[in-house]
Predict the 3D structure of the following.
Amino acid sequence: MTPQPKPGKVVYSAEQISTRVQELAADISSAYSEDDRLLILGLLKGSFIFMADLVREITLPHHVDFLVASSYGAGKQSSGDVRLLHDPESPLAGRAVIVVEDIVDSGTTLEGVLPRLRAREPASLDVCTLLHKRLTPLDPEPRWVGFDAPNDFLVGYGLDHAEDFRHLPYIASL
Ligand code: 5GP
Ligand code: MG
């Protein structure tokens, strides 16, 4: 077995993440009303911990669902081709939808996923990402961003390297 890389410097502590998640949830809670029938859609697997923390801080009633997107290829580089492995079953038409992403890197995942969701005619479609590397301008930019992240490979709080490190309560560079 090849030796496992070890997480290095802590980039965002559990406390920093928790504070920022509360702020994001407050912003989201005041940006919508009950009539919007808010649907929070988590992009698996990376967003699962962020989702769980975020939705518990959102004071507005809402529904939760997940989608699974996959780009071909493994490793640290995302390849261009995005597949939807699991499509949300929840109705999107006429509702306010927020896609929750762990980290935006090249933006390829969102570019692949958003048009497919938009085709289902939500009243609004926005992105909330915990981390944004801001490597390239995106159209549209995520409406809610937790942190502008350094261009390092980050793990923890849902983010993995070859499925390791998702459970860490903080975010570290590898
Ligand atoms: P994009 O499609 O924007 O290039 O990449 C988005 C996806 O690539 C993220 O949802 C995540 O799964 C993965 N990714 C991008 N950057 C990182 C990173 O620094 N660490 C980890 N663990 N995954 C990343
Ligand atoms: Mg991901």
